[in-house]
Amino acid sequence: MKCPICESEEIRIVYANYPGYFDGTSFDIFECIRCNTQFVSVETVDPEIYNIAYSNKSTPGYYRYLTYAKEIKNKNNPLKYLSEAESVYYPIYIYLKDKTHLDILEVGCGYGYLTYSLHSLGHNVEGIDISSRAIHYASSHYGDYYQVAKLEDHHKHKKYDLIIATELIEHLINPVEFISLCVDLLNANGAIILTTRNKDYHSKTSVWGTDLPPVHTTWLSKTSFKYIAEMKQMNCMFVDYTNYVGRNENKLMSYLYMKWTSNRMPQSILSNKGDTNRKNIEMYIRIILKYIVFFAPVRYTCSYINRLFTKEHDTLGVIMKRKNLKPIFPII
Ligand SMILES: [Zn+2]
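Above: the input record for the complex with zinc ion. Below: its predicted structure, written as tokens.
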């Protein structure tokens, strides 16, 4: 067996029969010693799992996307609204701060609200997703900027200034091939922005601190991205989250919760019928706590204290650009 990222054969099994996303399923978790990536070895993932997950309103993590989709049209600056709501949109917000009229492709655009927010800033946008249900929603709410397509089937005659894929790469069986396709579609000065769950946020002994397999199939670190960037002749920068304080997160609480649960065996999220396994009592406690820990002065104070514990954030924001760009001198 080889590492799906750096192709090293120095692989160790970190957990056998780890619980899967659905009841009664389990997966062996492997780790690459060289590039610090955890992965499961699967040939294919049945796309039907996303239909089951998306069709359940209480599925953790998915329902909030629909909330953004509904609220975004009422916002004066939709991208700022998204960035303040959730850390995954912050890298795009800071990258685009001083840029206008870019050609942008969003891969895995889901309900299309991020693509729409970029359009509202004057960029030329396209959003693609494999879910016809999500694209139908996007087209009918925001306009004709969306297509049902995989990146490999997307038209090749156009190049982009920016390709965005938030929270997508961890779902893919072959992340390196995905980044190759992105690089092929990039202008000379173009950039790729990716976000994923940050393995470096967790302790070295943690097992699979991301959505259960096969929903997520890789858990990537900064070293994983350095290897991918090197293979593809790209430079890779990581977004600094030190000054970021999201509206829906309390960094200190998240950090302590991560430490508390790091050695706890997770429970499968959904039964095979798609019903959530999460207990109602846990849901209610979360809702009550939310109002206390998300109160702005509490969030900011906790963010400051959190710096004493870690410089990492649970979201890893990666910006890739081509290496060895020749400087363009002005013609005199
Ligand atoms: Zn590796």
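Notes for the reader.
Residues 3, 5-6, 8, 32, 34-35, 37 surround zinc ion (CB under 6 Å).
The longest strand covers residues 186-197.
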